[in-house]
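Below is a filled-in request sheet from our internal design queue. Each sheet records the structural input a requester submitted and the sequence that came back. We keep these sheets so that new team members can see what a complete request looks like end to end.

REQUESTER: design group, bay 2
PRIORITY: normal
MODE: inverse folding
CHAIN LENGTH: 396
BACKBONE (tokenized):
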């Protein structure tokens, strides 16, 4: 058997010499670590403990919408209505010509949240002859003044059914509005019969809440009726209009607030498309419109004369279209700026052309809706009942 190879003297000596050297170095490092309060042998464990001791990640809060319906409220609900005080079923009130009835008269603070009507009358124009008015906080002039039909988007004195985010007309003649109408010290709402025929049955309900106090920075609700029957053609025949001269005015207001939207009725006095007119909105005294549109149907978020098709959506609609583009053609329209209210700090003037550069003379009827600080500017005088009735006016 061959003898075993003898160990390499050089490698053996090196290993022998290096082993205690390494041990000595490790010992020295351990001693130094001890002086510094460190334990090298437990570095991995120490790192793990540090991670374990870190605060757990805070989950994002659940969205408020998850709880909004269940959130407890701190207000009291009330209703002022035409219910039969005897306990019978005669839940209505008649309204004679020239008479005003009070629908609501309360002391604040509070918020009106819903107003409902249904009406039985032999007056075929009762939607134009019954006038709705409201006053907030003891003011001397009303913040709402409009024929009841126009206020609910029935601009031409006829009923039709539609649904939007703020106004609805349910089958058959149920008028509903959902504008929030806050008041601080008082609220009063009336309805006046300015026609010549008795309203046999007026049913109504005004739903409102009372609260301990209103939060700051609330505007008051306003609704103003206007008409031009007919609109006056512009004397400028250049086909250009950049200043808004001769435009139809939905409303003007001074103060701070925001514009919510409009309802508009059109009765055509001539053939052709009435809606080449652009919307132009003037804000805070700017002599040029801050907001310029591209056409009437575009303002109402439709296109191409609506192709003659009636429609009603949450924010915009033309729910009533009869004989479009003909003499006697009838349109009812609405637009709500609920996606982004149009704000003003000092003043606002909301207008629209009647035809391209105001080259048409159709009949326009409208209500503008907005919120603002009080006091508000005086409203134009309401036209007399007979002039509010839509009639075709043939141009000479």
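RETURNED SEQUENCE:
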């Amino acid at each position: 058997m061959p003898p075993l190879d003898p160990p390499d003297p050089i490698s053996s000596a090196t290993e022998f010499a290096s082993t205690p050297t390494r041990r000595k170095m490790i010992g020295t490092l351990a001693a130094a670590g001890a002086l510094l309060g460190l334990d090298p042998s437990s570095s991995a464990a120490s790192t793990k403990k540090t991670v374990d001791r870190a605060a757990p990640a805070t989950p994002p809060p659940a969205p408020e919408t998850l709880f909004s319906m269940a959130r407890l409220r701190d207000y009291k609900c009330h209703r002022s209505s035409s219910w039969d005080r005897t306990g019978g079923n005669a839940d209505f009130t008649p309204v004679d010509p020239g008479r005003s009835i009070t629908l609501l008269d309360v002391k604040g603070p509070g918020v009106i949240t819903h107003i409902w009507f249904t009406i039985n009358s032999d007056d075929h124009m009762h939607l134009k002859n019954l006038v709705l008015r409201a006053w907030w906080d003891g003011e001397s002039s009303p913040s709402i003044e409009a024929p009841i039909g126009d206020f609910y988007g029935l601009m031409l004195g006829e009923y039709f059914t539609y649904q939007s985010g703020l106004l609805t007309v349910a089958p058959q003649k149920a008028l509903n509005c959902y504008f929030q109408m806050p008041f601080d010290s008082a609220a009063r709402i009336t309805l006046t019969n300015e026609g010549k025929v008795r309203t046999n049955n007026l049913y109504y309900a005004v739903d409102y809440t009372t609260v301990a106090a209103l939060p700051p920075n609330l505007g008051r609700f306003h609704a103003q009726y206007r008409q031009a029957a007919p609109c006056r053609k512009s004397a400028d025949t250049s086909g250009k209009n950049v200043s808004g001269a001769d435009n139809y005015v939905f409303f003007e207001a001074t103060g701070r607030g925001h514009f919510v939207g409009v309802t508009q009725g059109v009765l055509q006095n001539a053939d052709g498309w009435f809606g080449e007119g652009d919307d132009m909105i003037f804000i805070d005294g700017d002599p040029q419109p801050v907001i310029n549109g591209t056409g009437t149907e575009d303002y109402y978020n439709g296109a191409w004369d609506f192709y003659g098709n009636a429609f009603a959506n949450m924010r915009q609609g033309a729910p009533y279209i009869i004989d479009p583009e003909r003499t006697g053609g009838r349109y009812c329209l609405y637009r709500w700026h609920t996606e982004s209210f149009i704000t003003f700090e000092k003043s606002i003037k909301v207008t629209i052309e009647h035809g391209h550069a105001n080259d048409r003379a159709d009949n326009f009827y409208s209500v503008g809706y907005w919120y603002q600080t009080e006091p508000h500017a005086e409203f134009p005088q309401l036209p007399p009942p007979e002039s509010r009735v839509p009639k075709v006016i043939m141009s000479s």
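SHEET NOTES:
- DSSP finds six helices and 23 strands in the chain.
- The first strand starts at residue 76 and ends at 81.
FILED BY: M.R.
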